[in-house]
Amino acid sequence: MKKYYPSIRALHLYFGLLISPLVLIFCISVLVLNHTDYINNRYPIQNLPVTKTHIDKIPYDTSDLQTAKNIIKKLGVKGEIDFIFQNDSQISFPVLLPGFTTSIKIDKQTNDVLITRKEEGAFRATNFLHKMPGPHNAKLRGNSFFMQNWKLLADGVVYLLLFLSASGIFLWYFLKVERKLGWVSILVGIILFTGLLFFLLT
Amino acid sequence: MLLKKITYTNRRLHIHIGLLLVLFIWLFSISGLLLNHGDWKFASFWEQRKQTKTITSIHIPSGLDSTQIIKNILLQLNISGEVNNVKMNADSVDFSVSYPGHVNNIHTDYKKSICVQNKLSYNIWGKLRTLHTFNGANKNNPSTTPNWLLTRVWRFSMDGVAIGLIFLSVSSWIMWYKIRKEYAWGYFALLVGFLTAIYFVILLRS
After folding, report:
1. Among B93, B47, B46, CA closest to B72
2. Interchain CB contact of A21 with B (< 8 Å)
3. Which of A85, A86, A93 is nearest to A69 (CA)?
4. Hey, how many other C-beta atoms are within 10 angstroms of the C-beta on B91?
5. CA distance between the termini of chain A
6. What is the mean pLDDT of residues B162-185?
7. Cβ contacts (< 8 Å) between A154 and chain B: which residues?
8. Among A75, A106, B9, B51, which residue carries the largest CB count within 10 Å?
9. A117 strand-pairing partners
């Protein structure tokens, strides 16, 4: 097994460095998600001026999503289209980017468009990325280029994190100086983990 | 000398904090994958949920405020968990009590003195998913804090894991910097990682 040590060490180091900034996104967002009130007070969401415009014709297509895609293309808005609401009088949907939300509302009778935008900042951007793609709205999710990439990246970070933790254990095991204290760290981790889950799940 | 001591301590902390957090990292990694892959058939939980309905007779003493009423009901039913979605009416109260993998929707009718519990229990996959998101946050009211002690403890441990991982990331840069000549590709790996993070967090919306 020891013959693999140099290559595992190199992979642990390179993969660790590669994903460390992305791990920071997930970690900072945990703090943001758990302390939303603090972030809201310290860094409030900025509502940008409302824009009113008009489109000559609603570019209806085969599906609501395709129609919404055509609309944002016409309006020059970029992002991930979220829940689309449509009835006889209006069509509305938000368009999401990490830390920025654009809401589009179109009056079907007049073709008047109301665009509201919110600048949510870098902390909420990490929050958004952490939750994406997520379990909700699965049929719609991934309708933008950036979300398709983020989906792959988020999975990649998790798989590499699993590899890093497993390879970390492997590397530690061959460090005789740290072996005893390492067992203590593992044991404390097991006690904390199982203790917490026992009380939470039963 | 001091620098040497710092880098040595940094390395030791990297190893031992990593080992301490390993089970938590696996839990949040696997549950994160489950949340992002609702289409994984083997991990379906909603279809396998167990639903039970229980009707219990209950006595609500008069002169209590809403918080005391809910506490009293929980005490009589001998249940605990994170309370949310409270709807108080003149002659009834509705709320839900949850802990990872379980949601109990409770309707209490003061006049009839009965309490109807609709309990949902999830399988192991559902429990894993809810552990990932169980922080007592209320999307509609961000100023609310967790009202169950174990939610607070779990949220605190989530913060701890996050801070631990931030330390592991930063300490890895310090460790690599010391041996950067032997591992020169580290510059490239770190640069790609940072550029990707900056692109998603800052550049996309500018």
Report:
1. B93
2. yes
3. A93
4. 9
5. 40
6. 95
7. 32, 36
8. A106
9. A48, A102
Is the pLDDT at A83 greater than 80, yes or no? yes
Domain ranges of chain B: 2-40+154-205, 50-121
Alpha helices, DSSP H only, in chain A?
5-34, 36-42, 64-75, 121-131, 145-173, 176-201
- ipTM for the predicted complex comes to 0.92
Looking at residue A63, the DSSP 8-state letter turns out to be: S
> Can you give the pLDDT at residue B110?
84
Packing angle, helices A176-201 and B2-36, rounded to 10:
40
Which domains does chain A possess? 1-44+130-187 (no CATH), 46-119 (3.30.160)
What does the pLDDT look like over B126-172, one tens digit per residue? 999 999 999 888 877 777 888 899 999 999 999 999 999 999 999 99
d(CA A167, CA A165): 6
- Give counts: helices (H), strands (E), chain B: 5, 5
Average pLDDT, rounded, for chain A? 93
What pTM, to 2 d.p., does this model score? 0.91
A 34-93 residues inside an 8 A Cβ radius of B:
34, 36-37, 40
CA–CA min distance A121, chain B (Å): 8
CB distance B155–A201 less than 8 Å? no
- Angstrom CA distances, B158 to A64, B59, B103, B135, B152, stand at 39, 38, 21, 8, 10
In this structure, are strands A85-86 and B82-88 parallel, antiparallel, or unpaired?
unpaired
Q: Which of B136, B161, B166 is nearest to A192 (CA)?
A: B161
